[in-house]
């Protein structure tokens, strides 16, 4: 039986908590208090409020709880969907390397996929002008008509694929465009077909959509290119989306048109199967390689979602502008997701993107100068690592990554470190002994390799190679014969 005493206050009061008590301000001479023998968490605040009539007084309440809040355990569980997602190793290693540098450790950072060049001046000036002219308000969710029209022109002139502005959605980077596409077209239980090595986020995006990533190996012996026959053997009635990236992150491989046509013939046999073509590195390509957009192939426009952006070719990683192009039905679904998440991309960045597309075919001289530098760096690394025993190389035809097979070093015991078991332990060893930050291949679905980004100056790469060689030579001597 609960015991209580009651007094009333002539003034309205508010409820609040102090320690284990539910209280309200009151005068020294007039207050209301109620004590209960039952546990406090069974009470409702509404049950303690008295409705005030025309002539009634509002009462203050003091409740003494026998159970302390400190004894109540908060539910900190996360959703199964989030728990199924792995954190990005490229981001984790980049953050670790940055922390070491800030702590005074001279780490050479070759993990991030970010050009070391500044954004071309013309692009930056367009952004400054936009700010000066007050172009700082919300834009349409799908992007400005000016930018979407410019993207349509670019895709027609450079890629041979035709779209109208309502078939384009501009997002906060190509990564958002890809995620929205996966969410838009995949249902729980659908399969997303991903050739390995793959960009680290593809499988996790599939999991976020409650879809199942199906990984198909494309080994270094095949120059990391998908075998159409192997693809055909893996397709089922659940297959919904095939993701292709050319030029590739992490390998730099470029799909020749003939191979893409073979893949297209396989795709055409499966009415549920769509293709997401990630073309973010299209302009960073080395002759004689030629980029082909998958949507330009016969019969593929209707089932292809083309993703591109400005981060890589135009050195605009921080501007966060990407886009998707495709049939209106699918693209509108992507726009619907965006409208309920981030809304439209930054207004100033969109003005900068228009300026980038105005630089000329394939980015004009500004982009070609960067590509020339990337090629020089690639050639230096291929030659340098080719001099090391046990390192297998597939020479990249695009992007700015080298994906090297170092598996011959697995099994070695490093003094003061331990056994090199896999790509992750090798990268930890090279960070520890060589002070070079690289990304283990297991993050990309191929544990035999590690990824080196050559989006860094030639001098930085020369220093990195020297450090890596010293560390590997010491390691090679310990490998059992």
Topology overview:
Blueprint: E1 4-5, E2 16-18, E3 21-23, E4 33-35, H1 45-48, E5 63-64, H2 80-83, H3 89-102, E6 108-109, H4 121-132, H5 145-159, E7 168-171, H6 174-185, E8 191-196, H7 201-208, E9 212-217, H8 228-234, E10 239-245, H9 257-267, E11 274-278, E12 304-309, E13 322-325, H10 328-339, H11 347-357, H12 364-386, E14 401-405, E15 413-414, E16 418-419, H13 423-433, E17 436-437, E18 439-440, E19 449-453, H14 458-476
Parallel strand pairs: 4-5, 6-17, 8-9, 8-10, 10-11, 11-12
Antiparallel strand pairs: 1-4, 2-3, 3-5, 7-13, 12-13, 14-19, 15-16, 18-19
Helix pairs in contact: 4-11, 5-11, 6-7, 6-10, 8-9, 12-14
Q: Report low-confidence residues grouped into runs of 5 or more.
A: 1-60
* Widest β-sheet, arrangement of strands: 7-13-12-11-10-8-9
* Class inferred from helices and paired strands: alpha/beta
Mean pLDDT: 88
Distance between the termini: 83 Å
User: How would you sum up the major sheet?
Assistant: 7 strands, mixed
How big is the Rg?
A: 29 Å
Name the helicity range. 25-40%
Q: Tally of extended strands?
A: 19
Strand content: 5-15%
From the spread of the alpha carbons, the general shape counts as: globular
Number of helices: 14
Describe the 3D structure:
The chain has helices at residues 45-48, 80-83, 89-102, 121-132, 145-159, 174-185, 201-208, 228-234, 257-267, 328-339, 347-357, 364-386, 423-433, 458-476, and strands at 4-5, 16-18, 21-23, 33-35, 63-64, 108-109, 168-171, 191-196, 212-217, 239-245, 274-278, 304-309, 322-325, 401-405, 413-414, 418-419, 436-437, 439-440, 449-453. The chain is globular. Strands 7-13-12-11-10-8-9 form a 7-stranded mixed β-sheet, sandwiched between helices. Strands 1-4-5-3-2 form a 5-stranded mixed β-sheet, with no helix packed on it. It has a 3-stranded antiparallel β-sheet with strand order 14-19-18. Helix 6 (174-185) crosses helix 7 (201-208). The chain is α/β, with parallel strands linked by helices.
